[in-house]
Amino acid sequence: MLTTAALRFASIATVLLAATATNAQTTYRWIDRATGGTVVSDRPPPPGARQVVVVEAASGADRQRLPYATRQASEKFPVVLYTSADCPACPQARALLNGRGVPFAEKLLTSEEQLAELGRQLGGAASLPSISVGRQGSRAFAAATWNELLDLAGYPATAPYGYQPSGSAAE
User: Fold this and answer.
1) What angle in degrees, to the nearest 10, is found between the helix axes of 143-153 and 90-100?
2) CB count, 10 Å around CB of 21?
3) Which CATH number is 59-169's, of 3.40.630.40, 3.40.220.10, 3.30.2350.10, 3.40.30.10?
4) What is the block-wise mean pLDDT of the chain (171 residues), using blocks of 10 residues?
5) What is this structure's pTM?
6) Taking a C-beta distance cutoff of 8 angstroms, is the pair 167, 106 a contact?
7) Alpha helices in the chain (DSSP H)
8) What is the residue extent of each domain of the chain?
9) pLDDT of residue 60
10) How many degrees, rounded to 5, is the angle at CA 138 between CA 92 and CA 81?
11) Cα(85)–Cα(28) distance, rounded to whole angstroms?
C-alpha cells in the first residue's frame, strides 16, 4: 500500500510540475481596422491588423521572482520600448527601464513607414527612443516624463536586488 501511495504521489507531483512549466503566456496588441481602437488579447490578431506587438510573458517561475507591484503593473500596463539600430539615446532608455526593474518588450523600427505609424499612434512626429506604457506613450527620451508614466502605472522606483535586465525583442 505504501508503494502505491508513493507512486500516486510521484505521478501527481510530475503532472503538477509539467503544468507549471508551461505557464508562459503570449499577449498580442494591435490596431483594429474596423474601429481604429487598440486591442490587447491572448489570441493572435486577424490578418491585416496594424501595429502588431507580441509580448512574451515571463514563465511562471520568472514572474514569481518579480515583486508583486511589478507583476500587477506589467499585467495592466505592459511596456514597449521603440528603438532603432542607430539610436544614440536608446542605451539610456534601456538603462532607465532596467534600473527600475521594468519588464518590457523592445520593438526595433527598421523603416520610415514604421516610424510614421508610431508617430500617428503617439499623436505627432515620433522620435526614438519612444515608449508606450499601457495606452499612454511618450515620444523621445525624457527621463522625467518616462519616470512619471511608470510611476502612474504603479512600477516600483528601483529594481529589486538581483534583478536581471529585461528587454525581449518584439517584431
Assistant:
1) 30
2) 11
3) 3.40.30.10
4) 58 50 61 78 77 63 69 92 91 93 91 87 83 91 95 91 61 41
5) 0.62
6) yes
7) 2-21, 60-65, 68-76, 90-100, 112-122, 143-153
8) 59-169
9) 46
10) 50
11) 24
